[in-house]
Amino acid sequence: MNFQSTIFRALSLAAVIFVGGLAASADDAIISTEAYTWQGDTIIQGEYRAWAPSDERIVSTYHAQPGYYMGIKSEWNRKNDLSSYPALETPNRLHKAIYNLGLDEMVNAVEPDTTLRTGAAWGGVWTRDVSYSIILSMAYMQPEASKVSLMKKVNAAGRIIQDTGSGGAWPVSSDRMIWAVAAYEIYKVTGDREWLEYIYPIIKNSLFDDVKVVVGDNSLVYGETSFIDWREQSYPRWMQTADIYQSQALGTSVVHAQAWKVLSEIAAGLGDRSVADYALEQHNHIVAAINRELWMPDKGYYAMYNYGREFPIINPRAETLGESLAIIYGVADHKRAQLITENNPTTPFGAAIFFPQIADIPPYHNNALWPWVAAYWAIANAQAGNEEGTLEAIGSIFRPAALFATNKENFVLDNGDIATQLNSSNMLWCLAGNIAVTHRILFGIRFETDGLSFAPFVPETLGAKRSLTGFTYRNAVLDINISGYGDKIRSFKLNGKDHKPFLPADIKGRNTIDIVMADNAIAPLKVNRTANVKAPLTPIAWIADGRLTWNPIEYINRYVVLRDGRRIAETRETSFGLTEPGEYQVIGVADDGTESFASEPRSNAEVIKVQMPGESTRFVSAERSYEPTSPVSGYSGDGFVEIDHKSDDVDIAVDVPADGVYAVSLIYANGNGPVNTENKCAVRTLAVDGDDVAAVVMPQRGEGKWSDWGRSNIVRVPLTAGRHRLSIVFRPSNENMNLATNHALIDRVELVRIK
């Protein structure tokens, strides 16, 4: 059901509420939803209160759910010296205290080795965590620590490290290129030419590998949704890691598009015109593909990803980070940006990581809100000009920071609590987002290669005078004062003189900036406020006796049958007669129209199976990481082919019965690690008649599980009738993150004519 928000008007309280010695009047509500209210210096959520007795203290009455393993802090008191960081002055004491909490925990996050710690419970540097944090605010708040942290995430081959992801990390997870965007942000902050020259070959080499391995024929990028790297949390359970590699996600594609744009700008700045032109071309291809393949006009936002096997379909869920990045990096034009902010579902606690939720999966990425994602959502809403959306996004960051007296990792979307599967305090990207909303939205600070620009976006309820003193920019220190509200600047003064809202990069010394907003009414845009929704369970389907049959799902209104990715029928039954060969799936639809994931594809099409030329049944390669738990079994011929860095190319002769497009895949085993950790995904290139076609990806399937045979990704190949030579070859672009182990067993190749 829908709920009503009362943003922009006072709460209808009959009397003054007295909390913790602070008087909060009935006429100063800043943000209010059905879940909570930010009123004066107090956050109110049902029976719970959090308030700021001073600029350096937050007190909360929130208490943990009974039996939850993680305790909840009842207060925060400043621990560190913050005098060297930009000081915020604002009449709203809670805002200032939350900002100071972000600074205080930022100091905690700087390790003795000058790297940025991921979180109180998460040691070390993780590529995507630190990169997203750097983009938000660490590039200018901690430039040296940001540099050192990024340098830690470059391997011996001079490539960016994909350190987490399903099935052996890269290329099943392929969002490592956010490193490039973060590295370039540091350059824009510092103007350090040596840094630019250092990052250029790393970005170029990584992208040039990726274009051969993770970019599809449609120009979308293969791989897991950016940051959502726990496969059960966001994909149907039937999808194996090879299936996840073959999916193409909005967020990951936007990251790659922006990385190519960054490469183009760096190459142009360094005088490498040919690379600059090629990189811009790649950027444009991906942007066009996102808008062509993933935009949903009926919903007014982009699909989360496409998925499937021979005939991919879209997952129509909204995914907040991907939608935000599409706005921020200009993938969405202004009209689409506005539509996204108006249509992306927003629950009482804020925008979900994705929506609707998966019913049988506990909260973490699923059924959750992460404050750093909310920060990107807030910035995107401000950029699109959505005042109410910006306010509610900021509120979804400030509410938990106050109630839990720390920048927590994530929250349950149903109730706003911290009882998720994993949760850390002092979370780097969350504190970075906390700081960013003040600097990047309310003061409008934007770093350019040639200077600093200002474009404040100040909602009316936050239109009080505020200042930021001691903001360091290259060789200058800035004291910034701002008053008024709106999205237009009435006057901008530098040291008392009228000036355009841009400071050149060579500005020096101490400078005072005075910004007066125009007090203009921002054109109203709506917010898609909705209760949290869980989708139906995914049907399990099979083909037998000429029928597609599936298990009944509770609370289902009807089922939709798909053939070759197209909807061909609706039924209330649990089976469907098959009259044509093809790939079949079924979707369950609830009474309110919410759809389940599509079931695992089942095909009754003819399969061409060709045995690999292998007779070995014993391991030869020293690259294997884990011994088999029992003798290898389950292969279909006399043995298997073992591939590693030293093995020869594998050639197979295939007799094709008719012209057409064929889906080609390998049946393989990879027991070099668990499904969810390590970095030993096996990668090869499929060549047809001597010409390289595409990457073949064989992710890990379990520690020592060498008899667990699975299917690689599918490569679509046009073939004429007759004999063809298929080759499995190793190319430099196939090198994985481990570098030492790139190893698998191959049983056979399978071909299905799909067109």
Could you characterize what this model shows?
This protein is an alpha+beta fold and 755 residues long. Among the domains are: 179 residues, Glycosyltransferase, CATH 1.50.10; 58 residues, Immunoglobulins (Immunoglobulin-like, Sandwich), CATH 2.60.40; 146 residues, Jelly Rolls. It contains 13 helices and 49 strands. Helix 5 packs across helix 7. It is globular and about 80 Å long. The protein starts with 16 loop residues before the first strand and ends with a strand. The N terminus is likely disordered.
The CATH class of the domain at 141-319: Mainly Alpha
Examine the secondary-structure arrangement and name the CATH architecture of the domain at 141-319.
Alpha/alpha barrel
Q: The biggest beta sheet, please?
A: 6 strands, antiparallel
Q: What is the tally of beta strands?
A: 49
Strand content: 25-35%
* Major β-sheet strand ordering: 3-4-5-6-7-8
Unreliable sequence segments: 1-26
Which structural class do you get from the secondary structure elements? alpha+beta
CATH topology value of the domain at 141-319: Glycosyltransferase
Mean pLDDT: 94
Could you tell me how far the N terminus lies from the C terminus, measured between alpha carbons in angstroms? 44 Å
Net shape:
globular
Measured on Cα atoms, how large is the radius of gyration? 27 Å
The total of helices stands at 13
